[in-house]
Amino acid sequence: MNKETILIIDDEPQIRKLLEINLETNGYKILQADTADMGLRLAANHLPDLIILDIGLPDKTGLELLSELRAWYHNPIIMLSVMDQESAIVEALDNGASDYVTKPFRTNELLARIRSCLKRAQHVEQNTVISFDNIEIDLVARTVMNESSLVKLTSTEYKLLVLFAKNEGKVLTHQFLLKEIWGIGYQTDTQYLRVFVGTLRKKIERNPNKPAHIITESGVGYRFM
Predict the structure, then answer these.
(1) pLDDT digit string (tens) for 175-221?
(2) Is there a single domain that holds both residue 37 and residue 89?
(3) Which of 90, 121, 152 is the last residue of a domain?
(4) d(CA 105, CA 55)
(5) Are 191 and 213 in the same domain?
(6) Whole-model pTM?
(7) Among 77, 156, 172, 206, which one is most buried in terms of CB atoms within 10 A?
């Protein structure tokens, strides 16, 4: 059974109860708060393994609380909200959210997102080889192998692939990817990013037209699986 502690910060009793039942059934220990202030105190006192944070809270917005938490809290935070506008999702992800789930949500999908976030958090940074499907990335040698064949990547394609692979399961926004790979001055050049993602897919995907690894999150960015 899982022993991770999850803090739910949501002012809707029905949502908290639904989450409590499903998460405890799956072996998680649950803490609950109905205000941002209570959530901040519980997070500081108990340091949960993951936080589920509603955007709409009575004393301050979830985005404000997200910024406060990210000053010292480094474990995953999944935002929960009725707002599904791309701008709200991008803002949350760019400000440190690990993932974003809209209400009403499917319980199994949320559980999968939780497992993915916790798995990433437990990843040992010292690992020098990242493997997926038939691809192996050697971070020391800076090589990418497809079974026994060397995949020839440009320096930019390699950096992009490594950034994706190190953030498996997490939505990476266009702005984040552009800033990390090309710098602040390129954060609006989304077409530039699409070109590189397209060439990278051709080199690592079995079927580039139906990618299994670099998944498009429409209007937001990409998720690496």
Answers:
(1) 888 888 887 677 677 888 899 999 999 999 999 899 999 999 988 88
(2) yes
(3) 121
(4) 14
(5) yes
(6) 0.64
(7) 77
